[in-house]
């Protein structure tokens, strides 16, 4: 399970929570412009936009969980078990395996408009990376620094591209169903409620925050979707990069999963392995991990983007506590 968002506060910040029961040894990886991407059914990409994001490097191939390119286009793949469906090769379409999808889009597109054009002929095909690394059932959030985002879902009825006015994605059900479900929560507000129950009777408030008393708080994907839409829509804009990055991570951490609360197998619990976000204008990639909530950063601008070697940055997992006495 996962949550991905686009937060706008002057600049746009894009990223996600990765919620799983096991870590894959992922790290922050910069792919330079000249790094060769070999695709299974499409021509190789020798020259493309530089990419930074969270990836597992396997056989010198960066398997990106999420990332963004130097032009400010971001993309994240989230679990979509059940509805997700991948197809056989179609000679009349551009056949891309889901493990190639992020570099295929981020390597060639500057923004959501260009991504939509590339998606018109796309066919997500069922080709595993290897026998040991099989495809995951995913759908994707794609966003750019204009503040726009789309959702891409491949189901049995075909490839669907949805404009995303709320800039949030979690997991099941299919995205239109998530939007429809928001209608059940339109009365939620940061303000104290008005008395519609008995307008002629004075009813006191026993607590602050009663306007949000019906806000879902579960670990399930629909609850996280509703809570994150509410959180993101009311998130303040800061006066500096530090304030905005802090606000951004508060948005993601509002729906993070703690160990011990979401059992997926006997004595096995899903949790938020990492949270990340990239400033789509500056190319600075920020992250926290479950064990370390200190915000760490890797800058795309500080890297050599014209070589042909991947640049990995292992995650800093050890908690850093500032002792004041």
From TrEMBL:
InterPro entries: CBAH, CBAH/NAAA_C, Ntn_hydrolases_N, Peptidase_C59. Its EC number is 3.5.1.24. SUPFAM superfamilies: N-terminal nucleophile aminohydrolases (Ntn hydrolases) (SSF56235). GO terms for molecular function: choloylglycine hydrolase activity. The keyword DNA damage does not apply. Transmembrane segments: none annotated. Pathway: Lipid metabolism; bile acid biosynthesis. It catalyses: cholate + taurine = taurocholate + H2O; taurodeoxycholate + H2O = deoxycholate + taurine. The keyword Hydrolase applies. One of its GO terms (biological process) is lipid metabolic process. Residues 2-309 form the Choloylglycine hydrolase/NAAA C-terminal domain. Keywords: Hydrolase, Lipid metabolism. Pfam families: CBAH. CDD domains: Ntn_PVA (cd00542). NCBIfam families: bile_salt_hydro. Belongs to the peptidase C59 family. This is choloylglycine hydrolase. The lineage of its organism: Bacteria, Bacillati, Bacillota, Bacilli, Lactobacillales.
